[in-house]
Amino acid sequence: MIDEKALFTSQEPTWCPGCGAYAFLAALKKAIVENKLEPKNIVLTYDIGCSANMVNFLNVCGFATLHGRSIPVAVGAKVLNPKLTVIAQGGEGGIVTEGANHLIHAAQRNDDITVVVNNNYVFGLTTGQASAATPKGAVTRSTPHGNLYEALSAIDLAAVSGGTFIARALASNIKAMEEILRQAIIHKGFSLVEVIQPCVIWAKDLIVPGPVWVEKPFIDRREFLGQANLFGILYNKK
Amino acid sequence: MKNRFAIKISGPAGAGMMQAGETLSKALNRLGFFSLMYPEYPSRIRGGDNHVQVVFSSRQFLSPQEKVNLLLAFGLDNLLAHQDEVIEGGLNFEAGDIGLGGIADKLGNPLVANSAALGFLWAVLGFDLPVLKEQLAEDFAEKKTIKDLNLKAAVAGFEKAKDIWGMAKVKTKGIKGKISNLSGNEALTQGILAAECSFAAIYPMTPINSILSMLAKTKVNLFRPEDEIAGINAAIGAAYAGGRAMVATSGGGFSLMVEALGMAGAAEVPVVIVVGQRTGPSTGMATFSSQADLNFVINAGHGEFPRIVLTPGDLEESYRLGAEAFNLAERYQVPVILLTDKYLAESCFSRLKEILDKVVVRIDRGKLFDGKGEYRRYALTLDGISPRAFPGQTVFLTNSYEHDEYGFSTDEVGIREEMMAKRGRKLIGLKGGVEKYGEEGAETTLVGWGSTKEILLDFITTHPDYNLVHFWRPWPFPKEAEEILRQAKKLIVVEGNFSGQLVDLIEKETGLRPKRVLKDNGRPFYKEELARLLK
Q1: Which residues in chain B are closer than 8 Å to A45, comparing Cβ atoms?
Q2: Average pLDDT over residues A179-187
Q3: CA end-to-end span of chain B, whole Å?
Q4: Domains B4-176 and B182-357 share a fold
Q5: How far apart are CA B533 and CA B535, in angstroms?
Q6: Distance from C-alpha of B74 to C-alpha of B84, rounded to nearest angstrom
Q7: Cβ under 8 Å to A: B residues 170-209
Q8: Domain ranges of chain A
Q9: CB-CB: which of A39, A45, A56 is closest to B237?
């Protein structure tokens, strides 16, 4: 088993106090250790934004890519060297807004990567504008009269496109998040984990829907579509 | 025109004009003729007017022509569209008139009319049937069910013209020696395969589609991306993971790739980008040629980062540079753009086989981490190049954000300046990029880049007062170019764009003011046209 300390870098995280990203980083480290993965065999492609700053804080083969493009970079690395464990990270801005096209197609192809969406409900690092996954009615810097649109869900997109492991985690529940990430990473095929971690600065007034934890995955993916309050492993097709 | 004979075959899309042109060219090569096959087709799959021009000669450098010696049209519309292009005293035939449709009907398959036409043409040219049959048998080797039918059609077509055998009075004679026939895309793909490319991401787009179909039959990991953005990002991911990776596209697709081009520059990931130019701007004329993307590929991307632009001009260069692009990309850890165009990509050219066989390709993967000591992905070095490692070998960071030697993101003044200088010095030692052809001291020096090479070589061969300077790597601008250009008595740059993009570059880099001969209507320079423009 690898020492969790091997996953630390020389850099201190720069996230805001109370940010869900700290919990996510802790859970991811534990999931890597639990899965007995060697850091040099893990490729983690990062998007752009607050949560993507993690590239500096986790000691694996990290690649800070472009906004919306962490998924295709990950797919290329996995195709070239299938022995690597490949994870693509992005906020809901990168994965559901700028790069939703890549999410849909990687799920359709069932590419053997894990996609993590750190959903903080807003574009954080640009000071709090609405993204495609911002809840309807939310007042943000770009929607002073309230967001007009229903939130677009990474989980729904991945499910209807053909993703075979789909889960929603809550940053405040590290234990459950760790187990979800552990299973997502070893899943053969396309895994999507949405981590709900509302921005403590720009989305602090937005309420997470009262979580309902599912005991075991659904057999039919239609059963969880459109239900943002469901947490846990929603779908797991071997 | 002396020493050469030109044929045009025209017909609706789907009737097999391209196939006929290719078979005809290769059969002519068997007789010892060099050939050029230049296809033109509109953006449609059935109907309309597709046509191919086949020029053959005992000389190896050939150009497309405005006028042909012989026209064979597959319908009245096609005949009317091209009959003005036949020289005085030339021949024209319409398929219905000469009973080719009847042959196909009798054989029960309208698609063999093109082979009947080939048989007919072959007799009019005054050649012996077995050579054509051998070529047809080779071309249909993988399609056994229709092979015999096509052979029968060719024989029947040949019989139809028995009474006018040799009517075309071909004067040019074949040479001895084995002649290879390839499209620019084929030569490029062979170079790509010789370089042991291991990953290609290609979204279909004219004129690079045949690269995609050829690579699909090989062991190269072929990624069929959802868009060009995914394509180049995946290629960057594959190169980062240790592969030799490429994309192929045209101007529109490359427009989408530009942000990732900058990432390859900043993160120092080697990637090869084939850009087959077609007429722009925007959708332009989708199936026609252009040389208007030179400025674009040299300047694409925000910020400043090193890149290499290669502009192969013929089969040898397409093969050699198709392979060398991967070496350059890995040696300097930069994006390398292989800029071709529709004329070079989709026309078929011929060369003595021994000339193509002489092109030697070796593999150079550049500086690699030896596994000893502490690893810094972006170690500051004298030549600006830091050894690469691959995931699985050691832990390291790769970063599109400005970074320190370890790859950690930074906004610090000192390291920013050091990293810009490091990337900026990577290409300083680059040599070559420009080649001289023809007699020293000629009255006029023509200057070109890319696909004009063979057309200009053809011109200077018949005009000894001219010589040629050809740029096969216009960027970084070759150090040797200024001295070579300054020796010329008179400079004329010939290029296929509206504004004169290489001329502008030469002016900027050298202060020289060459004359410009430009053409931008989707077609290559024709032989007669060039003679008029350069008079």
Answers
A1: 237
A2: 98
A3: 17
A4: no
A5: 6
A6: 16
A7: 198-199, 201
A8: 16-236
A9: A45
User: Measured between alpha carbons, how far is B9 from B157 in angstroms, rounded to an integer?
Assistant: 15
> A59, B267: Cβ pair inside 8 Å?
no
Q: What is the CATH number of domain B4-176?
A: 3.40.920.10
Residues with Cβ within 8 Å of B374's Cβ and at least 6 positions away in sequence, in order, are none
- Give the burial string for B95-122 (b: 16+ CB within 10 Å, else e): beebbbbebbeebeeebbbbbbbbbbbb
| Phi, psi for residue A140 in degrees, rounded to 5 | -130, 180
Which residue, among B202, B203, B226, B376, would best test binding to A if mutated, counting the most A CBs under 10 Å from its CB? B226
pLDDT surpasses 80 at A16:
yes
- CATH number for B182-357 (one of 3.40.50.360, 3.40.50.970, 3.40.640.10, 3.40.718.10): it is 3.40.50.970
A175: closest CA of chain B, how far (Å) = 27
Please tell me the distance from the alpha carbon of residue A235 to that of residue A191, in angstroms, as a whole number. Answer: 10
**Which among B223, B227, B393 is the nearest to A79, CB-wise?**
B223
Q: Are A87 and A65 in contact (CB under 8 A)?
A: no
- What ipTM score was computed for the predicted complex, to two decimals? 0.98
Residue ranges of chain B whose pLDDT lies below 70: none
Compute the mean pLDDT over every residue in chain A, rounded to the nearest whole number. Answer: 96
Residue carrying the six token digits 């693509």: A88
Tokens 């590929």, located at residue: B297
B412 vs A: CB within 8 A: no
Give pLDDT, residue A1.
66
> Does residue B259 sit at the A interface (CB-CB below 8 Å)?
yes
Rounded to a whole number of angstroms, the distance from the CA of A47 to the nearest CA of chain B is 10
What CATH number labels B434-533? 3.40.50.920
Interface test with A, best of B233, B403, B404 (most A CBs within 10 A): B233
Domain locations in chain B as residue ranges: 4-176, 182-357, 367-430, 434-533
In this complex, the residue of A60, A73, A81 whose CB is nearest that of residue B234 is A73
| Contact call for residues B165 and B123 (beta carbons, < 8 A) | yes
What integer pLDDT is reported at residue A22 of this predicted model? 98
Contacts across the A-B interface (CB distance below 8 Å): 133
The residues pairing with B4 across neighbouring beta strands, listed in sequence order, are B57
Residue B231 to chain A, least CA–CA distance (Å): 7
User: DSSP letter at B189?
Assistant: H
What number is the average pLDDT over the span A57-78?
Answer: 98
CB–CB contact B392 A63 (8 Å): no
> What is the rounded distance in angstroms from the CA atom of residue B417 to the CA atom of residue A79?
36
**Beta carbons within 10 angstroms of residue A139's beta carbon:** 14
For residue A62, pLDDT over 90 is answered with yes
Tell me if B273 sits within 8 A of B335, measured CB to CB: yes
**Which among B236, B396, B400 has CB closest to A76?**
B236
CATH architecture, domain defined by A16-236: 3-Layer(aba) Sandwich (3.40)
